[in-house]
Amino acid sequence: MAAVPTLAETVVGALKRRGVKRMFGIPGGGSSLDLIDAAGKAGIEFVLTRTETAAAIMAAVTGELSATPGVVLTGVGPGAASAVNGIAYAHLERAPVVLITDGPASSLHQAFDQNALFRPITKSQGRLRPENGRTAIETAIETALTPPWGPVHLDLTAKDAGRPVASDAGPPAPPVAKADPKDLARARRLLAGSRRPVLLVGLEARHGDGPAAVQRLADGLACPVLLTYKAKGVLADKHAGTVGMFTGAAAEADCIGRADLIVCFGLDPVEMISGKWRYDAPILDLRQAAGAELPAMPECRVVGPLAATVAALLPLEATAWTADEIAALRDAMLARIAVGGTGHTAGTVVEALGEA
Predict the structure, then answer these.
(1) Which runs of consecutive H residues, i.e. helices, occur in 26-148?
(2) Per-residue pLDDT at 319 exceeds 80
(3) What is the per-residue pLDDT across 248-288, written as a single tens digit (0 to 9) for each?
(4) In the chain, helix, strand, coil percent, each to 5?
(5) What is d(CA 273, CA 212) in angstroms, rounded to the nearest whole number?
(6) Contact 356, 230 (CB under 8 A)
(7) pLDDT at res. 148
(8) CA atoms within 13 A on the CB side of 333
């Protein structure tokens, strides 16, 4: 008869099934030791860091690059509090992170409400217990990886970490997301009536089938395309439609100002520079998840898987943009952001790398 797994082993098993290969942190004397031991047996590396915030940032970057949850382990009290800056980074960068902190063993020693501390900068908070361990960790992982990505927080006491897990079937499968057919119909009408759309691509388009969807949409519209910092590379710089960066500032104003429809694709306002929205054209907002509002109210919003949304909108009618117009906008953008000076500059280095 197989041994009943401990809560620590159950947590590690759930993380391993979701592709986790390493954890980051500074262990305390509590549950983090049980988790590190279970991780070692499961083939998951533990990376000891200099600070808890460094661990959180490393986990955030790991999560963004791998599309798997980054994992952070800290001690209780001061150790947990030291991760705040890094978890705030993960929250603002929309990075999937699972933070597991040693839970207070008593109501006195280094004890405060750690869930409350992280509530403003995490998508969910809770405590891992033997009676619901599998459900709690799998739900937390799913929450972290549900768009918009973000960090989640769980407390785990040393006493609970070593206890066997009760029978737990785990959470039900998440529902399959679908865009509203009425919203798709409105989006089709807007696109059909547009002669000069401009496409703004944001961070939601970076993973999975997002880049392929961007390519199909950009090819179908044959219009100028601007990408945010975090979406850079989703569409090749040499693509016929690529004009440059979208920041919410003035550099792209000449391009967007010519649009009769602004198509936002996976755009998260967390990436945008604060300021007054300067454009009058209607907005078509295509995104994976309802979240923070754009600076201007969209004429139509379609929420659902991006690739499925694009597939439902195709084929697209030809627009009035010409290749020469788009190329001129690209050249003007490059001229506006060029770094002056003689010899090699940051701009010439980037250009050389792009040509390599």
Answers:
(1) 31-42, 52-66, 78-81, 84-93, 114-118, 133-145
(2) yes
(3) 888 899 999 999 999 999 999 999 988 889 999 999 999 99
(4) 40, 15, 45
(5) 27
(6) no
(7) 92
(8) 25
Measured distance CA(217)–CA(59) in Å, rounded: 32
pLDDT at position 170 is 67
Q: If you count DSSP H runs as helices and E runs as strands, how many of each does the chain have, helices first?
A: 14, 12
Find the helix or strand (DSSP H, E) in which 126 lies. Answer: strand 125-127
The answer to whether the Cα torsion of 110, 112, 118, 124 is positive or negative is positive
pLDDT value at position 168?
Answer: 65
Categorize the per-residue pLDDT at 1 as very low, low, confident or very high, splitting at 50, 70 and 90.
very low
| Residues 6+ positions from 183 with CB-CB distance below 8 Å | 300, 301, 302, 303
**Residue pair 123/94 in contact by the 8 Å Cβ criterion:** no
Q: Which residues pair with 263 in a beta bridge?
A: 199, 284
Give the CATH fold of the 181-341 domain: Rossmann fold (3.40.50)
| Residue 296, both tokens | 């201007």
Residue partners of 45: CB distance under 8 A and separation at least 6: 21, 22, 23, 39
Cα Rg for the chain, rounded, in angstroms?
23
Q: How many CB atoms lie within 10 A of CB 283?
A: 22
Q: Is the pLDDT of residue 172 over 80?
A: no
Which residues make up the CATH 3.40.50.970 domain(s) of the chain?
Answer: 7-161
Q: Which CATH superfamily is domain 7-161 in?
A: Thiamin diphosphate (ThDP)-binding fold, Pyr/PP domains (3.40.50.970)
Q: Please state, for a pLDDT cut of 70, what percent of the chain lies above it.
A: 97
Q: Which residues contact 342 (CB under 8 A, 6 or more apart)?
A: none
For the chain, residues classed under CATH 3.40.50.1220 are 181-341
